[in-house]
């Protein structure tokens, strides 16, 4: 590539940071890193009515959680700032004057009442709705006089009426649009704030953006944007519109809200929800990268370094990609299993604390390998480990101590024998396993008849990490105490 690669993620801070936006940010990031270019974060906050003060915080936190560090933009600065559009209003004013003077845009004095009446009439006559270009041919001197008199106005693009425009996107076939399908769109609103289209084009030019990678809901805006580039005599960036993300059924767009699954689980769609649920950055990034892009149709698990190395726009599909929670869980489980015990323990501690478990780090480092296989998310951990950190087990149903097809008297015998063994045996995995297995054989019991009572006695639940390791970590004293309590419960 000859011109330096400069790409931007340009969110509007109107709501929560959605995975769709995260996918767009990631593709920009990967493209920039692959080409050794710059990744820019620009805040498009010109829609002040929909501005949400929390949105920026969610966005910046979300990008950091995903590890998508930007080279220029909010909080980091850069040579092309400011990077927040409401801090660039004077720039847009200047270009607005320029495009009016060039005869490619015009003042429009139509009131909202008039526009509504026009719209109602069009609906009634079953005409295509849109601005009827009432002010398009006002004499410039008259327009100037009305502006000087303080009349309220917007500025509209003076699009061609005849002919058509053809453009090429990197991801799809050539597209041709007839100008008669387009509107004389508003560029500058009556409060002096530009619309998205106007600010976006000016900023992409001034920030020397080389490629635009964004969601394909913006494809329809391209003809207007190309008109603006042409009106200013600027070279437009190369464009690539990323395929839609569908919801898990494959029918319809991925939801903008967090719905609930039939079983009551929240189906996350916001980046901070995935973080709160304990999805690892590595899994999120890997999963998101495959939403509309693939390396070779078979390689799925890829590190960030591999994604950067392999990413190309040529392999971005034009067909939509459906979200798949099971696949993400599978990825997350896989990345969790790859973590060394210390690292996994450190990542789990905040999730345990959130669940009210004051876990000891050294002990968690021992426990982490025992539960690693069982976690889809970090938030799955608390019920697997809570009993390690409790002085007293919470009350549990004594019936759980009794395996199927086993008499309570046999269970009593198991626990009494186990207590005796645990009093004297070497408290190691190997010694415990040998001694308790030998006892099961001596009593003529199946493994589960022997081990379920012990497991429930020391963990207070049927589903728990592997027993011998668990006993070792709990230690002789706690194990004996809990077995004693289970015997008391049974008698
Ligand atoms: N501000 C637009 C958005 O919120 C950016 C679209 C674009 O990348 O041009 O999606």
Helix-strand layout with pairing:
Blueprint lengths: L5 E4 L9 H16 L3 E4 L11 H14 L5 E2 L15 H13 L3 E4 L3 H13 L15 H9 L5 E4 L6 E4 L7 E4 L7 E3 L7 H11 L4 E5 L6 H11 L5 E5 L2 E2 L24 H7 L3 H9 L14 H7 L10 E2 L2 H14 L2 H14 L6 H11 L10 H4 L22 H17 L4 H15 L3 H13 L7 H8 L1 H15 L1
Parallel strand pairs: 1-2, 2-3, 9-10, 11-12
Antiparallel strand pairs: 4-5, 5-8, 6-7
The structure holds glutamic acid (GLU).
Task: Write a compact overview of the structure shown.
The chain has 491 residues and is mainly alpha-helical. The protein has 19 helices and twelve strands.
Structural overview:
The protein is 45% helix and 9% strand. The protein has 491 residues and is mainly alpha-helical. Among the domains are: 88-242, HUPs (Rossmann fold), CATH 3.40.50; 339-389, Orthogonal Bundle (Helicase, Ruva Protein, domain 3), CATH 1.10.8; 398-490, Arc Repressor Mutant, subunit A (Orthogonal Bundle). The strands form 5 sheets. A 3-stranded parallel beta sheet has the order 1-2-3. It starts with 5 loop residues before the first strand and ends with a helix. The model has no long low-confidence stretch (mean pLDDT 96). Residues 10-12, 44, 196, 200, 214, 218 line the site of glutamic acid.
